[in-house]
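The following block was generated as part of the benchmark described in Methods. Ligand: S-adenosylmethionine.
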Amino acid sequence: MTQTDRWATWLSGLRTCGDVASRQRGFERIIGWRDRILENAELRAGETLLDVGCGERLVGFGALERGAGTVVFSDISQDLLDFCKEKARELGVLDRSRFMRAAAENLAQIESESADVVAMRSVLIYVDDKKSAFDEFFRVLRPGGRLSLFEPINRFAQTGGDTWLGYDVTAVGEAARKVRSFYEAIQPPDSDPMFAFDERDLVDLVRNAGFFPIHLQLESAIEAPLLRSWDTFAGVPANPRIPALADALEQVLDSEERARFVAHLRPRVEEGRGVSRTCIAFLTGVKPGVARSA
Ligand SMILES: C[S@@+](CC[C@H](N)C(=O)[O-])C[C@H]1O[C@@H](n2cnc3c(N)ncnc32)[C@H](O)[C@@H]1O
């Protein structure tokens, strides 16, 4: 299949970038998150799960393995839906799968009260109108249905000052400021949907949509960064809305500044001489009402 849209291109780039060992570590971490999303959802055999922003099938296939009766794969990317459909065919689970091109904030194609579980990983960070998304999740769930999601809280990672992505850039401060300004012009931290919220906003949104009870598990870590090759660090964009660092450097630094910036940053990245700040939220909510008997 030819993957063309930016979401499909970015996800397949992540799947193939870097060395095998670091990819494997990243994959194991994501599988662990996926399992927690599904455990928190208390998915039961035969139930219908809506995987919002399904990407390359991570959550939906986990649900099918756990005995979901039907998984509705939804995403804004037709390429990713086609990818999931092909994988479902290969695995012989097409009859338990449906595919729907839809944005989280408008699930009009999905009937009200038709899902037992709405689940997702790392999708709301891309959604501007989070309120509409939570209203839609509430609408499509049956009474007693569960919402289970995972989102990174990127605000926690923002440090500014003399660090860039957790690496000390004091010695190349002027270049670092240009790089930071370049990225902040594309994704202003105070208004971009990836950065302009935290776990309290998520809890409020879930509560205001009508869910009760609600549970939040928040995990923060300040630790050594995962070791990455320079090619991965500089060559793969952190998200599909921004250019990779190598492209940004081309655009904002002259060749001398670029050489100094890379000479400074590269060994720090490759040797893990930085500080990684991460915060992730697992959130569940129940749509009040009596669950139908399975
Ligand atoms: C970081 S990927 C996560 C994919 C998948 N959930 C996983 O865990 O591997 C984000 C996904 O959200 C999708 N997406 C982005 N904006 C969306 C929106 N407004 N509504 C629904 N999906 C969206 C993208 O196409 C992409 O598949």
